[in-house]
Amino acid sequence: MRHGQITLSCDGEPIGSVPCEDVGTVVVDHPQTTYTHAVLRDIVAQGGTVVICGHDHQPAGVLIPLGSHCQIVQRTREQIEATLPTKKRIWQQLVRGKILEASKVLDKSDAGKRLRALVNQVRSGDPTNVEARAAKLFWQAWLPQEYEFRRDHDGDEFNGLLNYGYAIVRALISRAIVSAGYTPAIGIHHHHRGNPFCLSDDLIEPLRPLIDGCVRKMALAGHHEIDRESKTRLLGLLDSTTEFDGEQGPLNVVVHRYVNQFGACLRNEAKSLDYPKRASSWN
């Protein structure tokens, strides 16, 4: 840190700087990267996040600010005391959004049409697990058969690109959750006791197709590996223009409105929950 700027250097030679308050997310991948305590301290103090990648270049951990919202206790209480019907209604909207956006990734294909037909079959809480049926249909059609793709959370190549993109957006959502005074560990559907980001995993669901569509385009263009170019493309999603509640804005800004609207639904001040979606201007 120097005069409020994060300074970058290579082999002792300065190569650039950036105002700390302008940083939303830092992704650290190179194994020989070093940084000072002041850098980490000031990034989180300004509300940013730091994502640390492991040997496989996949995000292995995330540093997010501790909640400083003036109503953090009240917000946590809202999460804990939310009624089951309220949580089931919100989950229904998230799943419907996920399936609808997935159908747009496959566009005019037969699978896309079949996915759209599933949207209205999702009932409150999704008791018949339409989400799983839609996921199976989606991944079977995500790439042409000659690619022999199979969704595997521990897989490489395309699976690695998907996992990388999900982790980046998950960190972005976690940051917005904390900024709004909520606790990422308390979800409305995901509830694994060892998962500190259950709510993040709930709210990311309708945003997953943003990553799915981006990686699909890279795959069809012959790009299979996690490298500088692919990481740049995926990180670019954070600044991409999205539509939310009738307005457009970059994802890293809109996601805060998304979390705030979720809070209104949790308090039963609103019934409908929108989500950031691909803007019509995207290629």
pLDDT < 50 runs, ≥5 residues:
none
Q: Calculate the mean pLDDT score and round it.
A: 91
H and E string: EEEHEEHHHHHHHHEEHE
Strand content: 5-15%
How would you name the oligomeric state of the polypeptide chains in this document? single chain
Question: Which structural category do the helix and sheet elements fall into?
Answer: alpha+beta
Largest sheet: 3 strands, mixed
As laid out across the biggest beta sheet, the strand order is: 3-4-5
Radius of gyration: 19 Å
How many beta-strand segments?
A: 8
- Name the helicity range: 40-55%
* Overall morphology: globular
Q: Any overview of this molecule?
A:
By secondary structure, this protein is of the alpha+beta class. The two termini are 38 Å apart. It has helices at residues 37-45, 72-81, 84-106, 110-119, 130-141, 158-179, 198-203, 208-220, 228-235, 251-266; strands at residues 5-10, 13-19, 25-28, 49-53, 59-63, 241-244, 247-250, 277-278. This is Type II CRISPR-associated endonuclease Cas1. InterPro entries: Cas1 (IPR050646), CRISPR-assoc_Cas1 (IPR002729), CRISPR-assoc_Cas1_C (IPR042206), CRISPR-assoc_Cas1_NMENI (IPR019855). GO terms for molecular function: endonuclease activity.
